[in-house]
From TrEMBL:
Keywords: Aminotransferase, Glutamine amidotransferase, Repeat, Transferase. It catalyses: D-fructose 6-phosphate + L-glutamine = D-glucosamine 6-phosphate + L-glutamate. GO terms for molecular function: carbohydrate derivative binding; glutamine-fructose-6-phosphate transaminase (isomerizing) activity. The keyword Transferase applies. Its EC number is 2.6.1.16. Residues 40-176, 198-334 form the SIS domain. One of its GO terms (biological process) is protein N-linked glycosylation. Catalyzes the first step in hexosamine metabolism, converting fructose-6P into glucosamine-6P using glutamine as a nitrogen source. This is Glutamine--fructose-6-phosphate aminotransferase [isomerizing]. The chain holds residues 246 to 589 of 589 of the full protein. It is an enzyme of class 2 (transferase).
Amino acid sequence: SAASKEGYAHYMLKEIHESPRAVDDTISGLISDIEDVKNAIKILEESKRIIVIAAGTSYHAGLYFSLLLQREGFNVIPVIASEYYNIKTNQEDSILAISQSGETYDVMIALKEFKANGSKIISLTNVIDSAIARQSDVKLYTRAGPEIGVAATKTFTSQIAALQFLYSLIKGDDYTYLNKAKDVIRRSLDFEGEAKLIGEELSAKSNAYYLGRGLSLPFAMEGALKIKEITYLHAEAYAAGESKHGPIALVEKDFPVVFINLGELVGELQNNVQEMKARKAKTYAISVNEKLNTDKEILLTVEDERLSPFAVTPIIQLIAYYSAVKRGNDPDKPRNLAKTVTVG
Ligand code: G6P
């Protein structure tokens, strides 16, 4: 009903605006469940390999976490849940299953297989005592509240917060910087008008690339997925450095290329922008702290670059939202998609 949308045109927009609170509730929830968090960390640290399994948007959160831990020397393998058969796990492995609904069939099947191999299971779901949580040795939760829009928004941002909390504890860092995540999100929401302009421009296109490097890549992937899901525009994410090995062949005048720039590897990204500009692409950037000098750029600032994901995420979601609305699509109920996929 209109009332439960609280004045917003769609649930998706309302839920994007709920992200600051969702992230904050997620962090405080994990602090109150600190014994479970410690058990999860012990399992992750003691295992030979960490296998991260998830689908869709949750996979992108899992990929981000995997990159963070890989950089610390952990042996982490992100696996798309439906591709579980490509890996054989054992008692020395731990599994981190990430699922908003806690019910996704592909994740459940992978989890059961790995559990049967004797691997320890940790879950991160947004539904208390979800089916996936019930199969797990340690149950962790995001506390984003119910999400109605089919395309995940605040639950993704909350997964990022939860995983970054885990990562900070594993590193032995002070995690209190995460208390500022909500303010970073709020400041990004002030750029809604700029995101709308980019979204409306993309809505008129039939293809787009989303490029990123390092920690930006999972967010480029999520940006492109959001666009596909609700705008029905063919958006493809690529590692920026890899784009010259094929994808750039499609780039001609006004081909839209959206760069995600979390504030690391900026010089390399700037080179990629130049490659695209040389082909007369229409370049966009969602940047943190340092500009890429694209044709259109939203420059966000954070004091602590560990918070960059919280700056960029609301913008990629708003761009998709406004591009879908401009096309006349219902972003809350995209065609062919279901919020929870309990079949294989
Ligand atoms: C469906 C939804 C996606 C979601 C994916 C994984 O495909 O449409 O938005 O990311 O399932 O869902 P989960 O509940 O496991 O996070």
